[in-house]
Structures are given as structure tokens and as C-alpha cells.
């Protein structure tokens, strides 16, 4: 039975992705709710029926009181026995059936699937964002919003049908019941309803902003804590344990204060609710007794009025909390929308085609990029790299080397100019096809917290085991891999490497990264300090491998250790975002310019730098 309801909606159903999600709350929620439209109608009807059944039972309680007082037990049972038996069967069979359907639709069909669909689509959207987008936020805060918003959205949907729809139907039934008994009984109920509506309105107006502030504070706390954990080596290295504790404490205290303000609203709400519910009980039941004393109402009407008001008294706290949680959940969703609903800005053009690589010629035409600043990056760069050419890229930190690589990979769109590969503007081809043709090893190679095998196969998931093993051997990584064991007892290629590969040394991470690039075998190769984390002995072996990997490829290599690029076909020197020198190693030394000064200032083959790029 459960599986039937759980399979009514497929949370992974195909849908049309949008680059610009709605930025208003209700259109945003509605866009995620499309697969659930029919279920929402069913849930609303079942909630309505359940509420009317409850009011009907209270009505019949009053009727039963009147029936029992209308004659002797034998007379009442003989005349109304069948009716009472039918009522018992209704309570035992029909009522549980509708309530079971109501609960199953909400708990088993809507709640698990709605949150799953929300999280799945939100994650897909966020994963399409550019590298620059991720660089402008905490990974922890992004993840926190992806995790918090879906259950909050599910909670809002649940409360909408479990409490709000039910309560509205119940109040309508109560009005009809009392007006049928005596229209005057409706007057105190309507007065109470006006007071209750005013209290709900006050609560909603205050709890939404308070909830969003509290959610923001929680996200900031998560971001700070994850930031400390992600950089635990720096924390320990600089002995800043207390500093990180205080850094987190500021956010934790802000979360406490905002949550405390939120709870003040609920406490005030509870106190006011007790007061107006007292008015409800006294006014309705008291008026019913007055009517009874005047002979205008039966004992059954007094009993029904008393049962109804006591039931409303018990329900109102639940309804108020449900309404408050509804808007509180919407506040969390709205805070999550700050991340989830951001538009995708780095897009493939509508008519973008896959990159067709013939020989690997790279051309830069007036390439300019400043990251939105007045200086830095690249300025009007013109450059042609011929097929199969091995090019070294040199310059001070901040000269534009990393910018060059990021633009070539199209992690950013250039402010001006263009990059062509085999005559094709990279802004006109699909991003995935572009990056599929480029292999890259950087100086900061973070690995996925998965097995060694998964990390190596990331370069080419369809590679055979033999091809993967060959890549590992060529990267000089086989010996240390076979000796690995993680805390769960997994060994060798099945051992997991920890977050960002933290369980491996820098040199080990570098060799795994080299192995997956070797396995990828892309025609364009970018080496950004590819051997910086290796010791001299391993570097010598890896360089032999790299020279072999470079054969037949167009290569761009960034290195501060100039000895690693001295044998390149060509060396380009960047300074302040422009090409200032271009030639072979020997030609540039003879020129006695900037490159020669770099070479002369080396100690052990390293280029002295001034600032981080």
C-alpha cells in the first residue's frame, strides 16, 4: 500500500530547465509544484471531508443527548437502534478510511517526493552555476540552503493541507452547525473568529521576517563552521583554535539572538490565544445555556456547543502553530531562494554546437578581462598558439596567467575580445564540449571524497580497468596507492581519500590528478604548476611522463620553477596583463629582459613572486 502512494509522483521526472527561476516566492513554489497539482486537489478534498466528518460527529453527539432523553432506554433503542449501529459502523470503517487516505496522500505521496524533487532540481540548478559564482560564496552556506529549503517547502505544503485547509473547513462546519441550532449562537463565534484572525495576521506579519533572519543566521553559522573544518590544516598550523572558536561564536550568538526574538513572537501568540479562547468558551456555551433556560435550545444543543468550543479551543493552538510554521517555513524557503533562484549567467548560446577539434590551434584576439575592476587580469591580448606547440607561460603573480587559463576554460566570459580554437569562438560552442577537449593539472588539485578508482576514472568514466591502471603507472602512483587503507578498512584503489583528498599528501594528490588527466587524453593540455607538490626524484620521473603525454598535443604550461618549462617550444612572458616577451628559452636569455631577470633570481629553480594572483 505504501509503495502505491510513494510512486504517485516521480520526483526525477523530466522538466524544462530555466536559466532564470522566478524570484517571487509564490511563483517560485508553484514552479516546483507542477507535478503535484492533481495530488494537491485530492489532498484538499480529503482534508475538507475529514473536517466535515469531525463537525458532523459533534453535531450527532448533541442529537444523541436529545435522543437519550426522549424516552425510556427500551423505547430509544427500539426506535433508534439501527441508526446508532450505522453510526458505529461509520465511525469504525468509513471515518478511518478517509483519514487513512488523507494521511497517506500527505505523508507518503506528497512529503517525501516534494522535498526530493525540490532538492534535486535546486542542486541541478546550482551545479550549472559558473566557477566564479561559487568563488563568491561559502560552499557550506550554499549546501546549507540546498539542504534546508526543500524540507521547509515540504513542511509548508504539509501545513497548508493538514492544518490550514482542515481548519477552514472545520470553522465553516462549526458556523453551519451553530446556525442550524440557533443563528444567535453564531454571533460570539464570529466575534471570536475576528479576534483570532487579527492574532493570526499579527503573528504572520512578525514571524515571516523573524524566521528569515533566524534562517540567515543559521546559514552564516554553518558557513563559518564549514570554513574552519575545510581549512583545518591552516587552523592547526597557525595555532588559531581560539580564534576560530570566537569567529564561530559570533555567528552562533547571532543565531541565538535571532531565534530568541522569533520565540518571543510565539510566546506572545500563546498568551493572546488563551485569552480569546476563554472568551469563545464562555460566550458560546454561556449563550447556549441562556437559550436552554429560555426553552429556545435543547440539552443536546448545549452539549454540542460545549463540545464544539472545547474542540476549537484545543485546535486553535495547533492551527496557530501550523500557520506560524507555514510562514516560518516559507521564510526559510525565501532565504534559500537567495541561492537557488539566482539566474545562470554563464550560458551556452541557444544555437551553440559542440567544439570540433581538428588540430588544436588557439588564437587570442584582443582578449580583455578585469573581473569587474579597473585593472588586473588581461588587457587586449593577441596570441596564436599553433597545433602541437608547447608553450610556457611565465610572469609575476597577478600578471594574468591564471586569468588566461580561466578564460580559455570559459570559467568566465571575457570582458572583450575572443578566444578561438581551430577557428571556432569558444563562446559559440557548448561549455561541456570545450572542456572535454582540455586536460588540466593545477597546483591545487582537490580530489573528490570518493575512492582512488573513482577519482582516476573521473578523467574518463568509460575507461577500462587496464587503461586506468596504465594511467596510474605512468603517473608514478601505483606504489603508494597499493599501500593505502582508510578508516573503514578499504584498501588500495577502493580506499577513500577524504574531503578534497585531505588524507593524501600534496604529492600523492598531484599524481592522482596527473593519472586522471593522462586517462582523459585530451588534445589540449594545461599544466598549472603541475609538479609543484612533487619532490625532485618523483618530479624527474613525472616530467619524463609529461613529456610523453605532451606528444601530439597543444600544451600551455605555467611554472614558477622555470627549469620545468625551459625546453618548451616557446615561452611567453606576461606582465600587467600584457605579453612583454615571446621566444625560446635561449632567445629570451639573450634578450636579457624580464625573463632573464626571473632566471637570474631563481634559487633552486623557483621564480620569486610578489603577491597572490
Topology diagram in text:
Blueprint: H1 2-6, H2 25-33, H3 37-68, H4 73-127, H5 131-135, H6 139-181, H7 186-230, H8 232-237, H9 241-293, H10 299-340, E1 362-369, E2 378-385, E3 390-395, H11 401-408, E4 416-421, E5 424-425, H12 431-436, E6 438-441, H13 452-457, H14 465-474, H15 478-482, H16 506-520, E7 524-528, H17 536-550, E8 554-558, E9 570-575, E10 578-583, H18 585-591, H19 594-601
Parallel strand pairs: 3-8, 3-9, 6-7, 7-8
Antiparallel strand pairs: 1-2, 1-4, 4-5, 9-10
Helix pairs in contact: 3-4, 3-6, 3-10, 4-6, 6-7, 6-10, 7-9, 7-10, 9-10, 14-16, 18-19
Q: What features would you describe in this structure?
A:
With 613 residues, the chain is an alpha/beta fold. It has 19 helices and ten strands. The chain has helices at residues 2-6, 25-33, 37-68, 73-127, 131-135, 139-181, 186-230, 232-237, 241-293, 299-340, 401-408, 431-436, 452-457, 465-474, 478-482, 506-520, 536-550, 585-591, 594-601; strands at 362-369, 378-385, 390-395, 416-421, 424-425, 438-441, 524-528, 554-558, 570-575, 578-583. Strands 6-7-8-3-9-10 form a six-stranded mixed sheet, with helices on both faces. Strand 1 (362-369) and strand 2 (378-385) form a beta hairpin. Mean pLDDT is 85; it is low at 609-613.
Number of strands: 10
Approximate helicity band: 55-70%
Q: What structural class results from the helix and strand content?
A: alpha/beta
Mean pLDDT: 85
User: Biggest sheet, in brief?
Assistant: 6 strands, mixed
Computed over alpha carbons, the radius of gyration is 35 Å
Overall, the morphology is elongated
* Element order: H for helix, E for strand: HHHHHHHHHHEEEHEEHEHHHHEHEEEHH
Report how far apart the termini are. Answer: 60 Å
Question: What percent strand?
Answer: 5-15%
Count of separate DSSP helical elements: 19
Strands of the biggest beta sheet: in what spatial order?
6-7-8-3-9-10
- Low-confidence stretches are 609-613
